[in-house]
Amino acid sequence: MYKIAVIPGDGIGKEVMEAALHVLEAINVEFDYTFADAGDEYEEISGIALPQETIDVVKNSEACLFGAAGESAADVIVKLRQELELYVNLRPVKSYPGTKSIYNDLDFVIVRENTEGMYIGIEEETEEGATALRVITKKASERICKFAFEYAEKTGRSKVTAVHKANVLKKTDGLFRDTFYKVAEEFSDIETDDRYVDATAMFFITNPHMFDVIVTTNLFGDILSDEGAGLVGGLGLIPSANIGEKTGIFEPVHGSAPRHAGKNTANPSAMILSAVLMLDYLEEHDAARTIENALIEVLSENKVVTQDLGGKASTMEMAAEIRNKIENK
User: pTM here?
Assistant: First the structure.
């Protein structure tokens, strides 16, 4: 039995979390859930967005499912990444049937460094305006690049691309690029190349099939991940994993979407696929494929799906249909 922390959070996070847990009940894997608080709504009650008790619950769990945080996201998920040293942000870009995907056959992964870069939050006002500090270290660069290559080996992928802007950011991204090629020497069986981030953004539109595994720094990874989501039908279909040495947090990319909260119309796919990433992280691969295949079947039929997918089903009706596919296999 796996000890799993569950943080529903704000807005539609609560709704898609309920849907994902409903689907997880159908597989032959046992979980011991501990529910914890974080986010805007909790901050309104307590004055703090992320209590120490929640951090401790996640630390003492084998994995965590996270729904969404609203305006307090930087104080919640970013802080959790830093507190728990979740140095990897893993975001698949994968086409699914029955969606508004621009391409119907994409399947690549963005591996984003999660602890430094522009997101360390060191800013200051100046007489002229403001400055922000960008930190790139050899240790973090080695760690994220090694993860990318090991992930490629483990999942049968053949190419890793480093994305940077070393022609302008000569010191910071120069270090990242050079470290990438140093790590690559340990993985001679995997093809390597590197691209500037602006060119990569263009190639996402013109030739995304050239990518297999992308490894990049924090801000670039954040931006490219959302562009990748646009290629395959939007944020409602994109899961993510935050992974460290001891645990992982698995969350949809879409945020709390307060305008849609309480309507039970949110697409649960990204949260369910985040649970699939959690199962793969726990090496419950058969269970992961069972859920993913059931979701693919429901998307392909395009009958019991939410409004953004062209249907009329509620969040829980779509989740129930996915669970039904699993239980009837």
Answer: 0.92
